[in-house]
Specification:
The protein contains 17 helices and no strands. With 375 residues, the protein is mainly α. It has a single domain, classed as Up-down Bundle (Na+/H+ antiporter like fold). The radius of gyration is 21 Å and the shape is globular.
């Protein structure tokens, strides 16, 4: 997990993501596809990519670590999100004094689960740190969706934004739980039969079909929380294959972001929004990991802000009431560039940086130099 080529990979990935964004912009420009974001196929595609990211992220969670640190996870996806929204909006308001920018703050306050899943293999976080970041990125999405809908009603009077086309948020949550519960019932039933010696490849195929059907329903109805829940129990195959799939999905999702940019870019506001989002994660993660247990992971979690398809989806939701995509799309690029640069510097910077960020294994703790008093 701690390959020495993490730094070069970070720079290569950054260049690749920028190339994917540029390719999306060029394709949209060449084919005059300025209305592609309104096409049902586009919405289904980005929902499918995001859903796979949620599944891949929670599938990689160490369940024992998750149970041990569930309190920190809960604080991260509730108080952490609210703190980040407040900090991001504070920066935007200081520059522009526009109350509706609160919605932009909400849209980038979450961490992109697809990016987290794609980069897990090269992460230098401990298993506890990976679990916290994966769970944080997977379960903060419903919070930001809820905030987007209700704060829209308060700030610009747009209380009729669609939430997956399924009505109220309460109904949406129940449908997510029902979809995940149906898959769990199929998986649990066949797992019990396997334990009794009655399992078969056909049974495993039935579970796979159930999961794929749930994926289609989730992507078409925006019931993406169900896929995050499914990732907590349905874990076939090798993790390396899922990581590679998440990497491919990350580039496809970045290409989809490039398609949005053809409609125009508010670069100045986007840069301010991206920098504010990244710094808000530094503050929130530092506060949530103040305990000594997180000493070795604290800096990397603080530098863990990534944005992607979740922010784009929320931007598209806001488009009827606010030109959000023109600001959020460049902000996504800025955040991911900051993530790559700061993590590369942290992992491969001067010796004094490395000495401050050694992974804490429970036994090796940086010691203060002893002061020798003259006799």
């Amino acid at each position: 997990m701690q390959g020495a080529d993490c730094g070069p990979r970070a720079w290569t990935r950054s260049i690749g993501l920028l190339a994917a964004v540029a390719a999306g912009w060029l394709v949209a420009r060449a084919f005059d596809a300025d209305g592609v974001t309104a096409h049902p196929g586009y919405l289904f595609a980005i929902n499918a990519l995001l859903g796979f990211g949620l599944y891949a992220s929670t599938r990689g969670i160490d369940l024992a670590e998750f149970r041990e640190h569930w309190g920190t996870v809960l604080a991260a996806v509730t108080l952490g999100v609210l703190l980040k929204v407040a900090l991001i909006f504070g920066v935007l308001f200081a520059f522009y004094e526009r109350p509706e920018h609160l919605l932009l703050a909400v849209a980038v306050a979450q961490i992109d689960p697809l990016s987290v899943a794609a980069l897990r293999a090269g992460s230098r976080l401990s298993e506890a740190g990976k679990t916290l970041l994966a769970a944080w990125s997977s379960f903060d999405d419903p919070i930001t969706v809820l905030l987007t809908v209700y704060l829209t009603a308060l700030t610009v009077g747009g209380g009729t934004l669609p939430v997956g086309g399924v009505g109220s948020l309460g109904v949406n949550l129940l449908l997510n739980l029902a979809l995940a519960g149906a898959v769990f019932a199929v998986w649990r039933g066949l797992r019990g039969r396997r334990a009794a010696g009655a399992g078969s490849p056909a049974g495993r195929a039935v579970v796979l079909v159930a999961v794929l059907a749930a994926g289609v329903v989730a992507a078409s109805s925006s019931l993406l929380l169900a896929l995050a829940l499914i990732g907590l129990f349905y874990r076939p195959g090798r993790s390396a294959d899922v990581d590679r799939g998440a990497g491919v999905a990350l580039y496809l999702g970045t290409f989809a972001i490039g398609l949005v940019l053809v409609n125009g870019i508010d670069l100045g506001t986007g840069v301010v929004l991206g920098v504010a989002a990244f710094l808000a994660q530094v503050v929130a993660a530092s506060a949530l990991t103040a305990r000594p247990r997180w000493r070795g992971d604290r800096v990397r979690l603080a530098l863990g802000q990534q944005n992607g398809l979740t922010a784009v989806i929320l931007a598209l939701m806001l488009e009827p009431v606010l030109p959000a995509a023109a600001v959020i799309a460049p902000a996504v690029v800025v955040v991911n560039l900051l993530h790559a640069v700061t993590n590369a510097v942290h992992d491969h910077g001067p010796a004094w940086v490395a000495s401050r960020s050694r992974k804490w294994d429970g036994t090796t703790i940086p010691r203060r130099p002893e002061i020798v008093h003259p006799s």
